[in-house]
């Protein structure tokens, strides 16, 4: 019955709920412009002649923005198309990319990479060890911007003894080193000729990489055109041209797919649950879902006068119906989350007792902790009403919907929950400074988890640091995280992870809600659509048409 009531409560908004921050853009409908039908007719004509299409039309909710690989404003799927890193992360571990091999010193402090021969940037510049060093020098120049990656705090220096050898030296061993070198940014390589006087911190002259595609044209907030890199050192992609249309609205994207104006919708926040359910049994379209990529969560501020009481935090955990949120908002596509990280995440498959949903248990905890029902059905303790505020990103339909549901559910227990939506930058600023009681957040996701998410808890990156300041064991947790990052013993590292994850779970700092997954809907003639270890990558180079 409760599930049915939740469905009723959410009627009229479910179809938009998976946007999660993707509503920031205006309602401009670029699909209506003539420019957006770039070569669609030519591609269709080619297909009708019996030749497989080699042009793909993709869609994104916003413009590609600044694609400087050493900064953080650009769309990561586009950066993945243009730029490459020393290593790549696969389902089987690390694989060569711009470095064809590497050695790690016995003490774990020195990494020596043999750079692949014959690789050039798309402007003809040679990508050798000297070019790699020029990139690292540019990144290091802006070091403070990148300290969320622990490697930057341990970096002693880099060198290029010769054109085929690149060396990184650290002050301590660091086990996630190759992961950080393999993620989309900031350790992707751009042509030194595209830098501004050897620097990238203030922008670049052009977006020139060694990747499988090059950017040929872009019109802000309308479209971008990528073409296969004729000088690419690796296997040439079968899709030779990719046009990315900018369509902010979810329903407009679906209509464009139905009309054949686009071939592929891809991304965890690009497709709503209604659409996935609708096309699962379709012959015309295919649907793909990835394993969990990240955790949708609420962070509780332990410095708050009410929430510093662990009993209150635990009561709220039991008052949160994750299964109803999963079923009612996400049609079960996002599984209910029992713990901060999915058990599929490395080091996180440990035994933790979930906080079961139980209104009776939540009420009992509050009763025993002295919170008695007062006037207007709001609990009180020593004259203090149990009133809290939940901060959410007003650009996210999903967070607003969940907030309204929790406001209603918590109210039944005598918890007065005010919900407050703020535009994205203000929301993030308040989260970072700890100006919240409870706030929505999403963990960093694959392949950054768990190491980067935990490392960032030790500094004011997002809301974690501020939220944890009221914990008696905060210093102990932080030290264990530091020990994790420099540990060389696998067994000890697992035990340290167990300690940290258990403490955070029992301290009830995080309310995990659901596990996000990547999603794709595409025409059934498009093959090779899948997911990589990097959740932001769209693997265009693997795709082809039949």
UniProtKB/TrEMBL annotation:
<dbReference type="InterPro" id="IPR030678">
    <property type="entry name" value="Peptide/Ni-bd"/>
</dbReference>
<feature type="domain" description="Solute-binding protein family 5">
    <location>
        <begin position="94"/>
        <end position="457"/>
    </location>
</feature>
<dbReference type="InterPro" id="IPR011980">
    <property type="entry name" value="CntA-like"/>
</dbReference>
<dbReference type="InterPro" id="IPR039424">
    <property type="entry name" value="SBP_5"/>
</dbReference>
<protein>
    <submittedName>
        <fullName>Nickel ABC transporter, nickel/metallophore periplasmic binding protein</fullName>
    </submittedName>
</protein>
<dbReference type="InterPro" id="IPR000914">
    <property type="entry name" value="SBP_5_dom"/>
</dbReference>
<dbReference type="Pfam" id="PF00496">
    <property type="entry name" value="SBP_bac_5"/>
</dbReference>
